UniProtKB/TrEMBL annotation, chains A, B:
Catalyzes the attachment of proline to tRNA(Pro) in a two-step reaction: proline is first activated by ATP to form Pro-AMP and then transferred to the acceptor end of tRNA(Pro). It comes from Pseudochelatococcus lubricantis. It catalyses: tRNA(Pro) + L-proline + ATP = L-prolyl-tRNA(Pro) + AMP + diphosphate. GO terms for molecular function: proline-tRNA ligase activity. This is Proline--tRNA ligase. SUPFAM superfamilies: Class II aaRS ABD-related, Class II aaRS and biotin synthetases.
Amino acid sequence: MRLSRYFLPNLRETPKEAEIVSHRLMLRAGMIRQQSAGIYAWLPLGLRVLKKITAIIREEQERAGAQEILMPTIQSADLWRESGRYDAYGKEMLRIRDRHDREMLYGPTNEEMVTDIVRSFVRSYKDLPLNLYHIQWKFRDEIRPRFGTMRSREFLMKDAYSFDIDAAGARHSYNKMFVAYLRTFARMGLKAIPMQADTGPIGGDLSHEFIILASTGESEVFCHRDFLDFSVPPADTDFDNAEGLQALFDRWTALYAATSEKHDPATFDAISTGKQVSARGIEVGHIFYFGTKYSAPLKATVTGPDGQEHTLHMGSYGIGPSRLVAAIVEASHDDAGIVWPDAVAPFHVSLLNLKVGDQATDAASLRLEKALATRGFDVLYDDRDERPGAKFATADLIGSPWQVLVGPKSLAEGKVEVKRRATGERELLSVEDAVERIAS
Amino acid sequence: MRLSRYFLPNLRETPKEAEIVSHRLMLRAGMIRQQSAGIYAWLPLGLRVLKKITAIIREEQERAGAQEILMPTIQSADLWRESGRYDAYGKEMLRIRDRHDREMLYGPTNEEMVTDIVRSFVRSYKDLPLNLYHIQWKFRDEIRPRFGTMRSREFLMKDAYSFDIDAAGARHSYNKMFVAYLRTFARMGLKAIPMQADTGPIGGDLSHEFIILASTGESEVFCHRDFLDFSVPPADTDFDNAEGLQALFDRWTALYAATSEKHDPATFDAISTGKQVSARGIEVGHIFYFGTKYSAPLKATVTGPDGQEHTLHMGSYGIGPSRLVAAIVEASHDDAGIVWPDAVAPFHVSLLNLKVGDQATDAASLRLEKALATRGFDVLYDDRDERPGAKFATADLIGSPWQVLVGPKSLAEGKVEVKRRATGERELLSVEDAVERIAS
């Protein structure tokens, strides 16, 4: 992509309304624009990150056996009356009347609708287990939306819903998602720690939040230091092996980890001092097992192998990709801008031609652009007629993991400069070696 | 994908509420489910088609220089008051009040919002031309929604918006999208004919609808037969060449083509009889040039090379992917079910093991599944314990372009049967040759 043609409206000033660093940086980098209170448009740079995040989520959901569907944003109020949540949900639910005065709503979550789909088609235990997920916009009418896409009114959510014939099956389904979440966040370059959680308006008996540590995090968290060295289950994990998954779950929940709401100082203090971590965290995922809470009122049943009707046992599993973009920025930035983990970076490489119009730098830049693209890298080529200082500032702000600086002086010696954004480390390399360095 | 684990709720009965063939087949094939009047959930099979369609649209939009953003579904009424459309739009607009009693709406289109984005960032002619598109859910509160996803209330739309400093630039932008649309539909296996159109609530001076011919189409259309033999502009078309694009546009609009609203019988009758085509058609895309209709009231201007302020010239360009799924089914089906064009088929191959549990058919099916996947094909392996007749019916209904039948009798002679869904043509081939046949 050529920067001279790319719609990247960077802001020079720090926007006053932005209270947290991710909001400031996402606005300054030209990733998002607020359209109404708590409602954002995603500009090209931001959308690239959102897509990389959803692609990873999809891969790990499918690996764990979940199947993608896409439910609509607008739901009928009747379905929510069946579950009893229509009146209970309060003002966060955006209620709508259509032209025929029918009561509708903008879905804040989809337990009712997915249960309605499953009850209409699934009749037999042979069709189970079943896990359906979708990635769709949701709306929660927060009274005072703040913090950019970290807590917006219209937000993107991946929500998965599992259906099993009994509690044991549902436990297996829960553990599949538990492991999928560990893998999902790790692939994004995040260290996420599962913590027991309250179940809130979703309800249920068993629930975990996945929390990443970030000095600017929204809440206080406490955990055992060994979590930081745990390695996540590999890609070839056998998700059909219920015992194996339970063992993984047990290992990841044996050590102390709690948000402030669930914090037990006595247990925490019993951990040896060197192993105590008290930090700030951000919730990036939340999973629930709630048995028959929705299937019972909605009468979602199947015939079991015993010929009897069984009410389905369900769980739900959420990740907010639009929130996650902000969470990653909170966890990974410095004074100059964003520092993207490689897997979710909008561009892998910022290629800076420091003297546009110079025959040598133009030619070397073109060669690099082509060679890097051939290797599968997303390259943003800064071909603008700007002074080097402005190009450095843009590249640091938008946070590509690699920068390649093509200047006339180094190039006279056959070299370009390769800079790693995270460490600031610089190397002078030939064009060929620069490509190899980034590919390695 | 294994059919035994795949959520594919085929219906045996033809649903009574479905009035047109695409609606019937999409319900019967388990692609969609109605959640409220005119509001559908996309089940796994349907979502696969929707994604293949949007992937092609994206590629052709980017090729023509459009950049992807993502605007929210909920918009502020104030913006629509600025353009004067808030009161004009009528009851098709879904109007909403949030918890603070602010007037909002579910966007039926995005001219106002994208103009708001552009006016807030773009100051100079140097930032032009600019074309921003997004693929997002829209809502039009039809009084009597019918025809499945062909005319649903909540529907997916790709809408692009071009911004230029003057009419000449805007004309070039219009032609870029014109050519992109020709390519987009052709890649989906559709023959789309551009026809002059009314501009309706979008407004403007110049507008074309893209119409595909289908015997069950919604409207009557008239055109010159030579259109059917036109070959679309190639992938390496130079979109920066304004004259070249204008020549392509001229060629594609020189012959007679009109919907019934614009039909001129005298001109049509002047075409030699053998060249007259009178048929039924379905609108699959609509493009508009409307100059300063939105940019003037919203004061979207840039400084030109002359130092003066210029009001932006705009166009907008729509394709409805959720509608397109239904349109393709209308254009391509038979009595047994859907006949997907290869490029948008949810699965390329339906692999039918006709005797599950038989060592030879199981082994051959596994080999085929693996070999076809390695070649990049999406394979739906029917590994259910069902009689062959049920498997044939499912495969025909869901319409994979290829079927591979693995039965014990043929296999004893080292052969499997390869069937082309569109023609019914069958061949007995070795496993290896079957893979080559499909790949060729």
